């Protein structure tokens, strides 16, 4: 388990982050999901061994108001890039790769838009399209209830998060849960200890200081992102399961239509969780190859 680190930002806020893998490894700045936290990828078995094998240093900050990071009154997708770049500067990272999982995607796109010259490679795992597009949420599973609660009132969202955490402590309620997620994902969370581990590393860590930060961030997704995907100048690998009910394949197609530089990796028979549990090694290995290829001429020029 990575040690909790903190950075005091120029405006006095605290930015919390995890830092896992070899110190001299190729740096990867990860944008966690929503709900999510700096520890979400730590639920993957043997993550540290994987990072050492690939010589990758995985750095994941908690976003404003989430986990151990201070809230930010003007939190936005583009504004987040200021915090992320401040962290990169603090760690002495001139160049880095970017990854995101699920609803972390718009934060990755915004950061790539703001500092394309520093991004060696980028990978989006199970990312959504902008939800202000007509019909964007069509075909989504029970996760629509979460976003509906976010639209209605923060207290309702807090109630739902409380229920999620409580369910993690009780365990899965049998096959009734299968109707609420894609079958491949249900198979993942049905394995001993996985569901509880996800609850602890995602929901409980994210709400360590309450749900206000998550509630504030949730509203960002319900309005225009503040930039256009067509403006993102870096090449992005889009990894997506064709059975995903949280960010549907139709959403992936909308993103792919708009990103000028992208490579689509269709994971047949996979869903929202299996993209991590089945494919994280291959995804990170692909990212490492691309990032080192981009870094080589930069290093040679120095």
From TrEMBL:
Q: Which Gene3D superfamilies match?
A: alpha/beta hydrolase (3.40.50.1820)
InterPro entries per UniProt: AB_hydrolase_1, AB_hydrolase_fold
Phylogenetic lineage:
Bacteria, Thermotogati, Deinococcota, Deinococci, Deinococcales
Protein name as catalogued? Pimeloyl-ACP methyl ester carboxylesterase
**Residues in AB hydrolase-1 domain copies:** 28-274
């Amino acid at each position: 388990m990575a040690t909790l680190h903190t950075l005091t930002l120029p405006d006095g806020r605290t930015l919390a982050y995890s830092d896992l893998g070899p110190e001299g490894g190729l740096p990867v700045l990860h944008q966690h999901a929503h709900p999510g936290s700096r520890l979400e990828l730590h639920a993957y078995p043997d993550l540290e061994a994987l990072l050492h094998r690939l010589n990758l240093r995985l750095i994941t900050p908690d976003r404003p108001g989430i986990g151990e990071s201070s809230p930010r009154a003007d939190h936005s997708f583009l504004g987040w890039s200021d915090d992320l770049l401040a962290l990169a500067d603090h760690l002495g990272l001139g160049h880095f790769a970017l990854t995101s999982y699920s609803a972390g995607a718009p934060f990755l796109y915004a950061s790539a838009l703001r500092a394309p010259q520093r991004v060696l490679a980028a990978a989006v795992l199970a990312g959504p399209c902008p939800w202000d597009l007509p019909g964007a949420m069509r075909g989504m599973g029970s996760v629509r209830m979460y976003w509906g609660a976010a639209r209605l009132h923060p207290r309702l969202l807090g109630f739902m998060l409380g229920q999620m955490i409580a369910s993690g402590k009780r365990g899965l309620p049998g096959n009734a849960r299968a109707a609420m997620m894609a079958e491949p994902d249900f198979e993942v969370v049905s394995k001993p200890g996985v569901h509880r581990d996800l609850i602890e590393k995602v929901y409980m860590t994210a709400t360590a200081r309450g749900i206000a930060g998550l509630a504030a961030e949730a509203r960002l997704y319900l309005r225009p992102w503040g930039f256009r995907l067509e403006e993102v100048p870096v090449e992005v690998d889009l990894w997506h399961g064709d059975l995903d009910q949280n960010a549907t394949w139709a959403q992936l197609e909308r993103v792919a239509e708009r990103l000028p530089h992208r490579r689509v990796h269709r994971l047949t028979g996979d869903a929202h969780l299996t993209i991590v549990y089945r494919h994280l090694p291959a995804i990170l290995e692909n990212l490492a190859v691309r990032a080192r290829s981009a870094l080589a001429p930069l290093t040679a020029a120095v």
